[in-house]
UniProtKB/TrEMBL annotation:
Gene3D superfamilies: Dihydrodipicolinate Reductase, domain 2, NAD(P)-binding Rossmann-like Domain. This is Glucose--fructose oxidoreductase. The keyword Oxidoreductase applies. Residues 4-128 form the Gfo/Idh/MocA-like oxidoreductase N-terminal domain. One of its GO terms (molecular function) is glucose-fructose oxidoreductase activity. The keyword Oxidoreductase applies. It is an enzyme of class 1 (oxidoreductase). Its EC number is 1.1.99.28.
């Protein structure tokens, strides 16, 4: 039986997933949807019906949808501005539903802890839709590293860039009250997460520098951090550059150098003179497949604990930058699947 799914937020990411999911071998039953944009709702309904499925029921807001449909759903997918993630995740959990939640899970660690408490009270699952957490390509390299193939991890560097400033001009992503930050909070969070996912380790210390270039949100910056084991990590971010969006994460081991894309689209492994390249692709189908498996009792590769750790990291990066780049210590642990 396919997953009975409700959708809270029908924007571009939700629409992209809908196209992939409805064309899959076991498409979900998209039962009900809600969004503040009539155009987004119309587009989403069109995607579902063009795939040959019945049109989902449309509700004016999430509260109305959950009140009317909780008994007809197994789970909800929340894809709203970041400021509403905590509200809708908690409401869905209270209604007895599993939650697939867009990143970042919350605006700060305090909100993240409230989501964890709601999950525990409900006894349901919550999966955060970070592509790197759900990427079979990245998981495969983590397992090879942990099996000892590459030797000790010595250092990590990474970068991500995008024409984020012009790409999202006028969008809610550039309203900090809705987004929780700017480019580094948004696109940059994928880089923070990818470091954890490919190494299997959390952050222990961090110092950060953020620059807004005169805007009300950060656009460029960098961090110097350590992950567990005392491994140094240097990450840089630029959200106001030439059109495009690319990333590279480089991991230097005793016996290998691994470079990969933070969304799990490609990887290059150098072992001596031997270089191998692998293509993965963003796992649109894997997001739903893994979420469905987790809802059915499988282990969760993208937990709320991991996103609590990232929320604390973001809190400390902002604090470090405001206090002159002082190094700060993290107290949470991500509990990454080994």
């Amino acid at each position: 039986m396919s997953l009975r799914l409700g959708i809270i937020g029908c924007g571009l990411k939700a629409a992209s997933y809908a196209r992939s999911w409805t064309a899959g071998p076991v498409p979900p039953q998209i039962v009900a949807i809600t969004d503040t944009s009539a155009a987004s709702v119309q587009r989403y309904v069109g995607i579902v019906t063009q795939a040959g499925a019945a049109a989902p029921r449309v509700y004016p807001d999430a509260d109305a949808m959950l009140a009317a449909e909780a008994g007809n759903l197994d789970a909800v997918y929340v894809s709203t501005p970041h400021a509403f993630h905590q509200l809708y995740a908690k409401a869905a959990l209270k209604a007895g539903l599993h939650v697939l939640l867009e990143k970042p899970m919350a605006l700060n660690a305090e909100e993240a802890r409230e989501i964890l408490a709601a999950r525990d009270a409900a006894g349901k699952q919550i999966v955060i839709a970070y592509q790197s957490s759900l990427s079979p390509l990245i998981a495969g390299y983590r397992k090879r590293f942990q099996a000892g193939e590459f030797g000790a991890l010595l250092s990590v560097t990474g970068e991500v860039w995008e024409h984020w400033e012009s790409r999202y001009a006028g969008n809610w992503k550039q309203i900090p009250e809705l987004s929780g930050g700017g480019f580094i909070c948004d696109t940059g969070s994928h880089l923070f997460n990818a470091v954890m996912q490919v190494t299997g380790r959390g952050y222990s210390h961090v110092a950060g520098r953020l620059n807004s270039l005169g805007r009300p949100y950060e656009l460029v910056g960098g961090i110097l951090a350590e992950i567990d084991g005392g491994v140094p990590v240097t990450l840089t971010f630029c959200g106001n550059t030439t059109p495009g969006c690319e990333s590279t994460l480089s991991l230097f081991f005793e016996k290998a150098i691994l470079r990969l894309d933070i969304w799990g689209k490609w990887a290059e492994l150098r072992q001596g003179t031997n270089i191998t390249r692998e293509i993965g692709g963003e796992p649109n189908d894997a997001v739903l497949d893994i979420f469905t498996a987790v809802a059915g009792g499988a282990s969760n590769p993208s937990t709320a604990e991991q996103s609590l750790h990232l929320a604390e990291l973001w809190d400390l990066i902002k604090q470090s930058s405001a206090e002159g780049n002082v190094p700060l210590v993290l107290t949470t642990r991500p509990e990454i699947e080994q």
